[in-house]
Amino acid sequence: MKIKALVLCAVMIGSVAFAQAAGKVSIVPLPESIIEGTGHFSLGGDTHINYETTYPELENAGDMLSEYMAPIFGKELKVKASAAKKNAVNLAVDKAMAEEEYLLSVQKDRITITGGSAKGVFYGIQTLRQLITSSGGNNGSVAVYNIPVVSIK
């Protein structure tokens, strides 16, 4: 057990060092792919969080993200079941993806997090939280893809 913990620590430290050296975007653990684009999307108090109407379990993920952003914007962002829109963080599920897999896309007019399930969307939100923390809500265009190597139970 101690050896497993030491190996895990060594891998995490290596990931942090690599993430710092890889470019401007720093995410831990290091995802499978980070592609930086041009332009940026600025989150603000008028940004909404939308989730697919066919996946009501995403409402909890949206509420969690809204609560996280409340101190940054002075209020919680509106969370609603809706089709993907501009000036929004859009949460979606793609059953073709593995359960914990996700794609986070920051474009100039929206942020989209698509996961293989609500669990994958949750992991995408954790990555977005890291981007928000490092950028203050002014997020550069980026696409982050990840599928966890180790499933967390």
What class, by secondary structure content?
Answer: alpha/beta
Over all CA atoms, what is the radius of gyration? 16 Å
Using DSSP, what is the number of strands?
A: 7
Uncertain runs: 1-22
How can the largest sheet be summarized? Answer: 7 strands, mixed
Order of helices and strands: HEEHEEEEHE
Percentage of residues in strands: 25-35%
Helix residue percentage: 25-40%
Give the strand line-up of the largest sheet: 1-7-5-6-4-2-3
**Amino- and carboxy-terminal Cα gap:** 17 Å
Give an overview of the whole structure.
- With 153 residues, the protein is α/β, with parallel strands linked by helices.
- It is built from 3 helices and 7 strands.
- A hairpin with a 4-residue loop joins strand 5 and strand 6 (111-115).
- Helix 2 runs parallel beside helix 3.
- Residues 1-22 have low confidence and may be disordered.
Keywords for this entry:
153 residues; alpha/beta; 7 strands; 3 helices; seven-stranded mixed β-sheet
Spell out the blueprint of helices and strands.
Blueprint lengths: L1 H21 L10 E10 L5 E4 L6 H16 L5 E3 L6 E6 L8 E5 L4 E5 L2 H18 L2 E9 L7
Parallel strand pairs: 2-3, 2-4, 4-6
Antiparallel strand pairs: 1-7, 5-6, 5-7
Helix pairs in contact: 2-3
